[in-house]
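To: structure desk
From: M.T.
Subject: fold request, one chain
Message: Could you run this one when you get a chance? Sequence is below, nothing fancy, just the single chain.
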Amino acid sequence: MYDLIIIGGGPSGSSAGRIAGKKGIKTLIIEKKMFPRYKPCGGALSEHAMSYLDFEIPEEIIEKNIFGGRVRFRGKSIEYYKDHRLSVIVTRSIFDNYLLEKAKDTGIEIHHGEKVTDIFQNDAHVSVTTDKDRYKARFVIIATGSQGKLKTVVRKDDNKNEYGVCLVTEVKENDEVIDQYIKDAIEMHFGVSGVGYGWVFPHKGYYSVGAGSVMAKHLPYPKKAMQDYLKVNGFTGEHKLNGHVIPCGGHKRKMVKGRIILSGDAAGFVDAFTGEGLAYAIRSGQLAAEIISEKVVNGTDLKKLLDYEKRCYSEFGEHLKYSLIFAKMMHFFPERSFNAFINETDILDTFLEVVTFKRTYKDLVKWLIFNFKPNWLLK
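Reply: Done. Structure tokens follow.
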């Protein structure tokens, strides 16, 4: 009998595992893949996300330090740079494996290459069945990302208004050419296929190029959108496309049922405008493990697990709620909103404060309505 089983060894699961291990509760992480494993992702890790970690990211894992960005919209663009680092670029297979090793350092048990096929809970424990064995635990955290059906033991599946899809590929290039194209910055393209967006992130020896939307119903042909995006940006030739589903943050979702908690993408914690989820994956995993650790030690009523939902909302839930409002404002009024975004430096500066979590999306939405409603929000 384990105190805690964590299903999924990505950033949310490993962050939960590290907390649980440091708290001294008997913990098992079950991960279906063998790490390190490929993860389709741009690989931008924000300062906000790193602020939750109790250790430094080694320099050999950091491929680029990002101080600025280039925002493009229908032929127009703006570049910005700050005197402080905004994020770093990592390859997710390497970064995720490092986080899992940091969790393992606390003494917890980790099973790679084992797929969970069923979960059943009763009043006393949760039974977890895999393709190799069966386990019992007092509590379970589902940190499997947005894929799969395990999360539906807690909440209903998302509809097409509540999730999006992205395609990503890696384009090999010489580092000098990459630096000439964009140095110490990332590139974001908005207005791509309806409410979609695209990115070009510089890595060591390659670009991460992606396109998608956080609202799947507005991107009926994601593969074509990605192919068009590659062509428009001069990336010719054949490229292997890797897709993944992303939940659109800001929607109300159930996160706790009995002895089971959802964290990270499985709970829907993703910025609805930028698609960023690493910070919320890390922090929600930590919060889930903290709540469960308190429950194990104090043996309080199961209803105390609902404190997890309250703590998530107080720390970042409202922020994600307003990220959805902001995303709708920008994407549903693209000409007015993105032109203002590019032409009005005050908007960009305020947005950057939101990205670095110095201000909230709620602040930004209120500021936009107050300052720019007459120009681009009335119609």
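Reply (cont.): The chain has ten helices and 18 strands. Let me know if you need anything else for the meeting.
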